[in-house]
Write a structure and sequence with these properties.
33% of the residues lie in helices and 25% in strands. By secondary structure, the protein is of the alpha+beta class. Strands 1-8-9-11-10-7 form a six-stranded antiparallel beta sheet. Strands 2-5-6-4-3 form a five-stranded antiparallel beta sheet, with helices on one face.
């Protein structure tokens, strides 16, 4: 069945997405060990927690990374606020600051954490991941809508999902801010399937597209084939589809 795939510019998409206040922080605790109270690692992490929210919010791309301290207590961190829900500097700063606080409660004393809001992503680790061209496996989170679709041909639904995800990935990789959304018509029960993708804006187009290709392939392999919606959010890129905008 032929369908129209529409890939949308940022301005047309951000008005329909859920606000940050409705979001919940998800986490992936990825450190291989814990740090102790008052240790050099904790002090270095505190330096990053004080500096990175401001650094990200004052960056034109709302992206910042930093390294603090020497081995074996070096801390590497990256914060990014995707251009979702008309994200601005003050909202970005507050989101990243909240993510540091969440890391203390969700990944207590862990030497690595990946904290996800709709409006920002924060990752820190005792190992250097800043040069990664894709999402390290322990620095990503897979999230699934618990409701299943009710269609007679699940394969056709899946085909529409990956058609719109790949079209959105193509657009995102070429977009100046490495962000894009899309939609595809489906059937009377699910009239439109919506998609979204982003990469950190420091990634070259080819690296962004490769990162999204890997992410979309993981979604296809991981999620049950009849999920109404799903997302995979990593350090360098993310992809999502839903049956609502």
């Amino acid at each position: 069945m032929l369908r129209a795939v529409h890939v949308l510019a940022i301005a047309a998409a951000v008005l329909t997405l859920a606000p940050l206040a409705a979001s919940y922080p998800w986490q992936a605790c990825n450190g291989s060990s814990n740090y102790t109270a008052n240790s050099a690692f904790q002090r270095n992490l505190g330096v990053l927690a004080a500096a990175l929210p401001g650094n990200a919010s004052t960056s034109p791309d709302l992206l910042a990374n930093a390294t603090v301290g020497g081995a074996p207590d070096t801390v590497y961190a990256l914060a990014f606020c995707p251009p979702i829900d008309n994200q601005n500097a003050s909202g970005c700063r507050a989101c990243v600051a909240s993510a540091f606080a969440d890391a203390r409660s969700l990944c207590p004393n862990n030497r690595g954490a990946h904290i996800i809001y709709d409006g920002c992503v924060l990752t820190f680790s005792g190992r250097d991941f800043l040069g990664a061209a894709t999402n390290p496996a322990d620095m990503e989170r897979k999230l699934r809508n618990t409701e299943n679709v009710t269609v007679s041909d699940v394969g056709e639904f899946n085909g529409a999902i990956y058609e719109v995800l790949n079209a959105t990935a193509d657009y995102t990789a070429a977009a100046a801010r490495r962000f894009g959304t899309g939609e595809i018509s489906f059937d009377p029960t699910y009239p439109v399937i919506y998609s979204m993708a982003w990469c950190t804006p420091d990634m070259a187009p080819g690296r962004c597209r490769a990162c999204l290709a890997d992410t979309i392939a993981q979604m296809h392999a991981y999620f049950n084939p009849n999920a109404q919606g799903a997302r995979l959010v990593g350090v360098r890129c993310a992809a999502r589809y839903e049956n609502y905008p």
